[in-house]
Amino acid sequence: MPQRKTIRERTGFIGYADIRDAMSQRFHRRSTRLKGYDHTRSGAYFITVCTADRRRLFGEVVNGVMVQNTFGVVVQRCWEAMPEHMPMMELDAFVVMPNHVHGIVVITDQAAPTGIVGAANSPPLPAVGAPPPPSGDAGSRRQVAIMVKNSLGQIMQVFKAAVSRQVIRDGLIPRGVPIWQRGYHDHIIRDPQAYERIARYIVNNPANWDRDGMNR
Q1: Number of domain units in the chain
Q2: pLDDT tens readout for residues 155-172
Q3: Quick check: 36 pLDDT over 80?
Q4: What is the pLDDT of residues 83-92, one digit of tens each?
Q5: Whose CA, among 67, 68, 177, 181, lies 20 to 30 Å from 79?
Q6: Contacts for 51 with CB less than 8 Å, ≥ 6 apart
Q7: Cβ-contact 203, 93 below 8 angstroms
Q8: Residue 114 is part of a domain; what is its CATH number?
Q9: Which of 123, 120, 87 is closest to 106 using CA atoms?
Q10: Whole-number Å distance between alpha carbons of 48 and 53
């Protein structure tokens, strides 16, 4: 059987924003979507999702190593399970931090499935295009926007809803308590050099926590 190519060998790079600019924005709640850009296009994206009020829900960094609590483990498992339900996407570097997550999401040319999907080792994910059920997500108290099928927005909506549903089910947080900051932050990755640099930033995030602007 021929060896499977890595994501980086198979992915085209379609846009770029310098990671230093991304960090300097301090992850304000305003939208960071590139106006007019089609986020269903194939390519690689650097993603950051923050907790509501940047509360440290997912664990602590100890001596430069992220130690996940039970909540953080749920976040990790939900993230890793997404490609099983949404085959138009693949994942690369990822880290759960005390109050946010960083990851690389790659949207491929594969078609997305339809209908209800689920996995034995992860919480069921909602039907494509359907709003999530009530949860601890801050956005659950208002009408949830219907994301474009196969888009980055839909991927992130499914991820956040799955985490919220599972931690409430496990009794880790009361229903109605906000878990996530509204929205998410993405930066389009144009070239392999940027890809490698962002991947290193993600992997080294725990070691650099003392100097991280999110550590406050």
Answers
A1: 1
A2: 999 999 999 999 999 999
A3: no
A4: 998 888 999 9
A5: 177
A6: 57, 58, 99, 100, 179, 180, 181
A7: yes
A8: 3.30.70.1290
A9: 87
A10: 15
